[in-house]
Amino acid sequence: MSFIKQKEFAIILFVLPLLFLLFNYYTGIAEPAASELINWGSYLWNFSMIIGTYSLFRVHGTNIAKKGKDWSYSVVIFISFVTYFVASYVSPDVFKLILDYIQTPIMLTIWMGGFATLTMVFRGARTKSYLGVLLLLGSIFTVLRMAPIGPLIWPGFHTIGMWINDVPNMAVMRAITIVMGVGLIATLVREILGKETHYLGD
Amino acid sequence: MTEKKKWYNISMDVQDSLVYFILILLCGTVVLYPLGIPLNVTKETREYYDALIAVPEGGVILYDEAYMVQSYVTGSEITMFRMMFDLIREKDVKLIIVSSCVDGPLGGAMIDKLLAEGVDKTGTTYGVDYVNFGWLPGFELVLSSISKNIQTVTMNDAYGTPISQIPMMKDLTTADIDVFCFSCSVSADPWMRQWGPLHKPILMSGGSSLIAQAMPYYESRVLTAYLNGARGLAELEQIYGKFTIATALMDATNLASLYGIALILYSNIRYQMGRRKMQ
Amino acid sequence: MNVVGEFIFAAIILMIWSVLYKNNPFYKLISSMSVGLMLAFWLKGGIDAIIKDVLRPALLDMNLARFAVLVLGVVMFLRFYKGLAFASKWPIAILAGVGTAIATKGAIPTMILSQIKVGSFVSSDILGNVNNVLIWIGVISTLVYFMFSFKHGPVVGGISKIGQVYMMIAFGVIFGQYVYGTSVMAQMLYLLKYPGYYATIIAVLVLAASIVREKNKTKPAEETKA
Question: What is the pTM of this model?
Fold first, then answer.
């Protein structure tokens, strides 16, 4: 009984499906079981989402109970959650209205990646060395290659931009992809040997 | 006596706000007064279009809609869907639509909106010519499931009909799928990892920020063709002949791009001038 | 309803953009709402998937495999019970194992083997040959740059310097792609057409009033200083 309480039992439960799926991938044996196991992953993911939701509620619920910092915004979180969740089952029309006119503009705008990029460009895109100059030249040629107006200003922007994309950029991305692939395999070996247990929350 | 502050020596926060305001002004101006800058069709878009229409008669296309909400709002992938439905009518192609969107169930909402508002479905029958699996949770798990066996990806379609009762899914296997298409905004790695080993044509569309990262797959022919972000969708409309908001967005993209370059040059010139002053 | 809805659409965009001026209650309200809405949307999708693919097959169709998933899913909730919390790690371990397997099995053919294929250096296309040579110099020098297990001597250091040059150009390409995507036209379409422009006018007036108020606040402080 005490063994199943130990970390090693969880590691065995991690390694067994992993090895089974790899075995199936390379031999093709037990295909239905492997398909089912992969689907298990999706379903368990949903259960973990419920747990995540509960944890978030606990944090905000405590904030409201103790009237902590910005507790009124925690109330807003609860109200918007309950309204949207109930509407999704009880009133699909209200759900669609909230989706179309509230959630959509929020998701469209809240990222604000364009503005963050501009801040980065305005405050941080300053060169102190030739490497910085290369970076900025690469970015300028890329922008002028991708924007339709670039080739209209000078066709060379497209030609040079494509060359930069197809040769130096491709070379580096290829190297990074190889490194990532090797890193994935190395992490796999470490996890099988039990040296990596981050998935257990350690 | 304090020195009088020069009008251009404003705080960084105000300068940032000015930078954002100018961007908003530029994009707003283009909405009111479109520039109509011509758009040429690049080799990449032509390749994508040719690869899509090369699907054989009676073939099967699988489309994974996993793009960000921008696509939902602008419907910029409407042309893609219109082309695929034309292929259904002209070549008796079957279409499987799914969303593994990492943004969540919004992927399913994107598909519903595109099917409801954007596409002419005359001459096609749901369940016979196309099927919508909706949003499926799990992201790469869904992609892996698709690559293993399309029959076991989900038990029901987006509307609750069991897969076993859908005519076009009868006896269909992953090997029968002729073209895999996906749209995404994050890295292309998960799709390449799961679908690459199938050695079938894979077509990518989505955010322009993932093109550079996907180049090795394109070069090694794991990825067959790609669209160059929003520009690629606009170019596709040039080929297709019907224009939507994707083309209208190009004017603002042009101005915003030039503005970005102007900012880069301005911040560097100002920085170098400041350095010289200190020296 | 459409008119009211589109006005709200524009108002929400403006409330989020108000943070570009400074942090304010409108932005905090919308960002809190976004957390609640996203959570509800995700939870609905997750619960629907559980009902559709786990509960119905397990309880109505007596599918043993799905019943096992249901049991594992319920075991996940044991993390809230001190004595049985150890069991909640089991389904997570299985999920992690499945995820690792599917990520890794595709990595070898597509991320490693496909990437080490060499283009021809001696074909009839001279420019293609030159490009292939340059690509491979870039790949090797970038890989050498990432070798941190030993100290870089003059030769290895020189090669990694070439890798640095390649990498700066490549990062410039990525940076350029982000700069390219800075357009906000999608939002402007809603802000400048009816009824969104009413919200825009109100926002501009509120902003102007806020700026004037800020200026009046700092003016007396400066005059006192002088």
Answer: 0.89
CA separation for the pair A111, A118 (Å, rounded): 13
State the complex-level ipTM.
Answer: 0.86
pLDDT (tens digit per residue) in C50-84: 998 899 889 998 989 999 999 999 999 998 888 88
User: What whole-number distance in Å separates Cα of residue A91 and Cα of residue A86?
Assistant: 8
| Region A114-135 average pLDDT | 85
Question: Cβ(B24)–Cβ(B259) under 8 Å?
Answer: no
Q: What is the DSSP letter of B117?
A: I
- In this prediction, residue B2 carries a pLDDT of 47
CA distances from C54 to A110, B142, C77 (A): 34, 15, 16
Identify which of A42, A127, A180 has the shortest CB distance to residue B141: A42
Residues 50-109, chain A: which have Cβ within 8 Å of C? Answer: 50-51, 53, 56, 70, 73-74, 76-85, 88-89, 97-109
Tens of pLDDT, residue by residue over C98-136, are 999 999 988 888 899 988 887 777 778 888 889 999 999
Q: What residue segments make up the domains of chain C, in order of their start?
A: 119-182
Query: Would you identify the CATH topology of the domain B43-241?
Result: Rossmann fold (3.40.50)
Domains of chain B, residue spans? 43-241
Nearest CA-CA distance, residue C16 and chain B, Å: 13
Task: Write the CB contacts of B187 (distance below 8 Å, at least 6 apart in sequence).
Answer: B210, B213
The domain limits of chain A are 2-111, 113-192
